[in-house]
Specification:
Layout lengths: L1 E5 L6 H4 L1 H22 L3 E4 L12 H17 L3 E5 L15 H5 L6 E4 L3 E5 L2 E6 L7 H10 L4 E5 L27 E5 L5 E2 L3 E3 L16 E6 L5 E5 L5 E7 L15 E8 L3 H13 L4 E5 L18 H11 L6 H18 L1
Helix pairs in contact: 7-8
Length: 346
């Protein structure tokens, strides 16, 4: 039996941005649903963070999710196993109140897991592990210890794995507690990484600048062979353009329509030609355009920011190289959280 695994869809992301939802929808229309039908998929595992905000839901975002996702799955007769993630749990210390349970009760094909549960997928028994918090941690660790399942799927915060391509998580549970399993699949971190046993599968699409050029999509998992196949999302939202006295007349701007574009200036000898280059980009109806010409960082004196780096990686490296007596990992974590919150306000 083949099942689809998807995680961290974040419906309602970026304050229910139409730009982002249109971009998400292209993935669902052109990649996700056609693959489900082609592969004869009747079961989906949603490994958490289905909705973006843990505090509330924009009615428009909920309508979008129902019309473009849940109604279509119900019509196709597809069962959805939904694991509660940290973005869908209202409180930080319990999963009892959660968005997927409250918002999706009308769908009899959606089953929500707010506590660790052993579930049979055809002939394979799988342990579903929702967001681990103060209330359920003891119960979860006991079940992990005594279960005889080969496979676990959840929304886990483990240290030593990549949050994104620039940042490795330095806190969370030790992944060694999952060594007993043959395979562990998890959501939560949006980039793909693994240690040979635990696999973070990544989210379906780009959402922030640090996602640029990172493989995104979903997976098909075979419950008999325990093999997974990555189904990549070919569509991008974020683009880096490197300007080196580039001839604006030969610039093909068609792919940048309704996209978020960053022009990184490496060489600019003629201001007028550069302005024409930028004007051509604007005329292609880019959704957002940023221009990066230099990074004015004075301390430490030998610090160099590279134009290929995104903001978060520059900040983290700057902290790492700074001569300070404070715990740098704590500062980096604080900066990362502030940066992510700032991105969500844009």
């Amino acid at each position: 039996m083949k099942v689809a695994i998807i995680t961290d869809q974040h419906f309602g992301a970026r304050k229910n941005s139409k730009l982002f939802h249109d971009y998400f929808l292209k993935f669902y229309n052109d990649v996700f649903f056609p693959t489900l039908e082609k592969e004869g998929i009747t079961t989906i595992i949603d490994m958490g963070d289905t909705f973006d905000s843990r505090k509330g839901i924009d009615f428009s975002a909920l309508s979008w999710a129902k019309n473009n996702y849940y109604d279509r799955l119900k019509k196709l007769g597809i069962k959805v196993h939904t694991i509660v993630g940290n973005h869908t749990a209202y409180y930080k210390n319990t999963n009892e109140v959660n968005a997927v349970d409250l918002l999706l009760r009308e769908y009899d094909n959606v089953v929500v897991y707010s506590e660790p549960t052993e579930v049979k997928l055809n002939n394979l028994k799988v342990l579903f592990i929702p967001w681990i918090n103060q209330e359920n941690q003891e119960e979860t660790l006991k079940l992990i210890s005594k279960t005889n399942t080969k496979v676990a799927m959840g929304h886990l915060e483990l240290h030593g794995f990549r949050v994104n391509r620039q940042v490795v998580m330095d806190h969370g549970l030790d992944s060694k507690i999952f060594d007993k399993f043959q395979i562990v699949y998890s959501g939560h971190y949006h980039t793909r990484s693994d240690n040979g046993t635990v696999f973070y599968l990544g989210n379906p699409y780009e959402m922030f600048w640090n996602d640029v050029n990172d493989n995104r999509g979903f997976h098909i998992f075979d419950t008999e062979t325990l093999e997974k196949v990555s189904i990549n999302n070919p569509y991008k939202l974020f683009y880096n353009i490197y300007y080196e006295d580039t001839n604006y007349q030969t610039l093909d701007t068609r792919e940048y329509e309704n996209k978020i574009v960053k022009v990184i200036v490496r060489k600019k000898s003629d201001i007028k030609k550069f302005e024409k280059f930028i004007d051509k980009l604007y005329s292609s109806n880019v959704a957002e355009l940023k221009i990066v010409e230099n990074f004015a960082i004075e301390e430490p004196e030998n610090f160099e920011a590279f134009e290929s780096e995104d903001t978060l990686s520059i900040l983290n490296r700057y902290i790492e190289e700074a001569e300070i007596s404070l715990d740098k990992s704590i500062i980096q974590k604080m900066v990362q959280e502030i940066y992510q919150e700032a991105c969500e306000l844009v």
